[in-house]
Write a structure and sequence with these properties.
The chain is mainly α. It has one domain (21-153): Arc Repressor Mutant, subunit A, CATH 1.10.10. It has helices at residues 3-13, 25-44, 51-61, 68-75, 79-91, 113-133, 139-153; strands at residues 95-100, 103-111. Strands 1-2 form a two-stranded antiparallel sheet.
Length: 157
């Protein structure tokens, strides 16, 4: 989209910022999330990833060895969605399912060497995206935002 189209869209929606919904926290969080997700998905596209599979890969690459249930709860996704995400990453050779040493009835998700390399490339893209997307905030504001979002994200634990 060219600059003219963007400025026209912004000017045509500018009046909507004066409505009550524009002050609702849920709306503002949803809008900010949608904008951030779109930009992050675009940044990850060259790696053939989107935010959801990237998140699973990142948790596996952190050597957290999460179970499918833990992934479902942490990412707030239906277990069937987690299975599909892991299947896709496993088909790419980026993760494996391995028996949990504490409970052999449960599988954990582990990163492969190829998966770690893919994560490293994708992480660099995500970090670049975050620097660009959040450039309207200074370092201290980003730290405050991160802290507040972590508190809100953990409110029901």
């Amino acid at each position: 989209m060219d600059d003219t189209a963007v400025s026209t869209r912004e000017s045509s929606t500018g009046r909507l910022w004066d409505t009550q919904v524009a002050g609702d926290l849920a709306f503002l969080m949803a809008r900010a999330n949608a904008m951030s997700l779109a930009a992050a998905n675009a940044a990850l596209a060259d790696e053939g990833l989107k935010v959801r599979p990237y998140s699973v890969l990142a948790l596996a690459a952190a050597d957290a060895r999460p179970t499918q249930r833990e992934l479902s709860e942490f990412l707030r996704l239906d277990p069937s969605q987690i299975v599909a995400l892991i299947d896709d990453l496993q088909d790419r050779g980026w993760v494996t399912r391995e028996p949990d040493p504490q409970d052999r009835r449960v599988n954990v998700v582990a990163v492969t060497k190829a998966g770690r390399a893919a994560f490293t490339r994708a992480r660099a893209r995500v970090q670049r995206h975050q620097r660009e997307h959040f450039s309207v905030l200074d370092h201290d504001e980003i730290a405050v935002l991160r802290g507040l979002l972590r508190r809100l994200a953990r409110v029901d634990e």
